[in-house]
Structure formats: C-alpha cells, structure tokens
Design brief:
Layout (H helix, E strand, L loop, with lengths): L1 H33 L4 H23 L1 H4 L6 H28 L2 H8 L2 H13 L5 H19 L10 H19 L2 H7 L1 H16 L14 H25 L5 H7 L2 H13 L6 H22 L1
Length: 299
C-alpha cells in the first residue's frame, strides 16, 4: 500500500511541476502581449529573484554547505559556465520563442531537449545509435516539421525566429541537464541551481537590469510575475526533483509531457489561442518520440 502511495505521490509531483512550468509560459505570453514586458526584463526578474529565494531557503536549511563551492575555483568556473549557457541562454531562448510565436509552440519545441541529449551522447560515445533511438529522433524531427509547417511542408507557419529560439531552448535545455552533472553530484542539485540562477541573474543585469523597460505593473501583472518566479521556476523544479524519490527518473521525465499539454490548454482557455488539429497531432508525435526515448533508456 505504501509503495502505491509513494508512486501516486511521485506521479502527482511530476505532473504538478510540469503544469507549473507550462503555466508560467502562458503567464509570460500574456505579460508580453498585453503589458509590454520585454524578453530581457522577464528573464532578468525570473533568474535574479528565483536565485535569491532559492539561496535564502538553502541558507536556513543547509548553511554549512551553501558557501563551500565558492572556495573551489574549478567548480566555480563550471558553475559560471552553467549560469551563462544553461541558465541565461535557456531562459532567454524560451521567453524569446514565446514572444515571437506563442507559449504552446515554445514549450513543445523546448520539449525536444531529450532528443538533443541523445544526439550528444551518440557523438560522445562514438557509437551507432540503436534502432529505438533512431526512430525517436526521426519521429521528433517529423513532429517538429509538422508543428512549424501545419502540414504544408513548403512553408513555415511560424516565423524563422520563432523556430530558431524554440530549437535553441531545446538545445540549451539539454546543456542545462548535461553540463552540471559532476558539480551537482558533489554539491547537490538545489545548491547548483540556486547559485546558477543567482549568478545568471547578476550577470544578466549587465545586459538588462530589472529597472529597465519595466512593464505596466498592476496587481494582475505583479501576481503573474510572482507565479512565474515562485511556481513556474522554483516550485516546478522542486516538484520535478522530488518526484524522482518516488518514481524512476525516466517515468518522471515522461510526465513532463504535461508541460506542452498544459501550455496548449491554458493558451486556448485564457489567451484565446486556437490550437489546430494538426498542431495537436504534432504534439502527440513529439511526446511519443520522447516516450520511446524514455522506454529505451530503461531497457
């Protein structure tokens, strides 16, 4: 009974985390379209305040271990690399994709990150991928082509910039997972995410400080920004991380399919975005390709 309860808890945590992330993209789209927020301002606020809040939490929960990484130059350099390419570039690419397309499209393109991870390990191991991996990659490419052309393969239905930033979000999402593995094993995932967000937020102030191009901050906008920082960044990460205590990581990653699904649903309900049948089919194909990949990694 306890095993069943733990499995249910893990599934719920993974789904809630994925829904929070998908919802944050829709909140960002609303703020950019209706309140004049720029990609730069949203990225700046999200990283800096998420980093501060995570470090604040860690300071009281594990004060003795929080500052250890600052004493190791090699690990600090690795964390800074993670901050730039795994945090700044990922956040910017994701929000830029939303701004020039929509939250649903940006989220499903970012969901391709497991495919980029497989491609990376194929080159790293210098081995020919197995049949399941090849099928997964082929399906993901077909699903992506279907999504961005709406079935008319002679034309793009989204802007070239939208496709570019969406694919970049997927690429840097893969970097976000691959690059910090060693330092996360050494210092803990939460610590590295906290410092990564904080350093990324500080560095990004040089490009776009939080006081520059501030949008219309009424009560609704403030609430949506808080949702993006607290629920869409901190709690979504914590839920997905904790879910792996109760269910296999592969199963947890599969449940992140609720990210594009929730993003599409919220976009349709709250922003009036019309999701065409061909777009739903393309989402299903991409999610299925990641499912095959997940099953393949379990075997």
């Amino acid at each position: 009974m306890n095993k069943v309860g733990n499995k249910t808890k893990g599934i719920l945590l993974a789904i809630i985390g994925a829904i929070f992330w998908g919802g944050s993209g829709v909140c960002a789209q609303y703020i950019m379209q209706n309140k004049g927020a720029s990609t730069g301002w949203l990225v700046s606020v999200r990283m800096l305040f998420a980093g501060i809040l995570i470090l604040f939490y860690l300071y009281f929960s594990q004060k003795n271990n929080l500052f250890t990484i600052l004493k190791n130059k090699k690990d600090m350099l690795s964390t800074l690399i993670f901050s730039v390419f795994g945090v700044i570039f990922l956040q910017y690419a994701f929000f830029a994709a939303i701004q020039v397309s929509n939250a649903a499209t940006a989220t499903i393109l970012q969901y391709l990150s497991p495919i980029f991870i497989v491609i990376y390990f194929i080159f790293e191991s210098k081995k020919i991928p197995n049949v399941m991996s090849m099928i997964s990659i082929a399906l993901s490419l077909f699903g992506t082509a279907l999504l961005v052309t709406k079935g008319d393969f002679g034309t793009l239905s989204i802007s070239v910039l939208g496709l570019f930033w969406g694919l970049m979000a997927g690429f840097f999402g893969a970097f976000y997972i691959i690059q910090p593995r060693k330092i996360m094993a050494k210092y803990g995932t939460t610590t590295i995410i906290g410092w990564g967000m904080f350093f990324g937020g500080l560095l990004f102030q040089l490009y776009h400080p939080v006081w520059k191009d501030v949008p219309e901050l009424d009560l609704l906008t403030f609430g949506l920004v808080c949702f993006i920082v607290v629920f869409g960044t901190i709690l979504s990460y914590i839920c997905l991380l904790k879910s792996t205590r109760y269910i296999p990581a592969q199963f947890s990653s599969l449940l992140t399919s609720f990210e594009p699904l929730s993003s599409a649903l919220f976009s349709s309900l709250f922003l009036g975005v019309v999701i065409l049948p061909i777009e739903i089919i393309s989402m299903v194909i991409i999610i299925f390709s990641v499912f095959l990949l997940s099953r393949n990694s379990e075997m």
